[in-house]
């Protein structure tokens, strides 16, 4: 699977990602993985649940990341 070049970086040290940015990134991820831009009616609930779960996971990830001083790498 190739990496999508149109995916934007969310995390910026100077400003945290907004809920809208996290939601948009989650939707983009689900679309990429599922192969559907918009799900059928029968798949809408599963699609929406996946977007919510990924957004929740992303918020937990961003909240737990430690900022490193500039010039330092992990």
Question: What structural class results from the helix and strand content?
Answer: mainly alpha
Quote the distance from N terminus to C terminus: 26 Å
Task: Count every beta strand, where a strand is a DSSP E run of 2 or more residues.
Answer: 0
* Low-confidence residue ranges: none
SSE order, one letter for each helix or strand: HH
Radius of gyration: 15 Å
* Average predicted local confidence, pLDDT: 83
Spatial shape: elongated
Sheet-strand content, in percent, reads: under 5%
| Helical residue percent band | 40-55%
| Major sheet details | none
- Classify the oligomer: single chain
> Number of helix segments?
2
Short description:
The chain has 74 residues and is an all-alpha fold.
Please characterize this protein's 3D structure:
With 74 residues, this protein is an all-alpha fold. The protein has a domain of 45 residues. Helices cover 50% and strands 0% of the residues. It has two helices and no strands. α1 crosses α2. The longest helix is centred in the last third of the chain and has 21 residues. It is elongated. The protein starts with 18 loop residues before the first helix and ends in a 10-residue tail after the last helix. The mean pLDDT is 83.
Task: Please supply descriptive tags for the structure shown above.
mainly alpha; elongated
Topology at a glance:
Elements lengths: L18 H16 L9 H21 L10
Helix pairs in contact: 1-2
């Amino acid at each position: 699977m190739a990496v999508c070049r149109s995916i934007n970086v969310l995390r910026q040290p100077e400003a945290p990602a907004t809920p809208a940015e996290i939601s948009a990134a989650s939707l983009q991820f689900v679309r990429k993985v599922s192969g559907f831009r918009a799900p059928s009616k029968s798949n809408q609930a599963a699609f929406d649940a996946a977007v919510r779960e990924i957004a929740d996971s992303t918020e937990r990830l961003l909240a737990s990341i430690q900022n490193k001083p500039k010039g330092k790498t992990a």
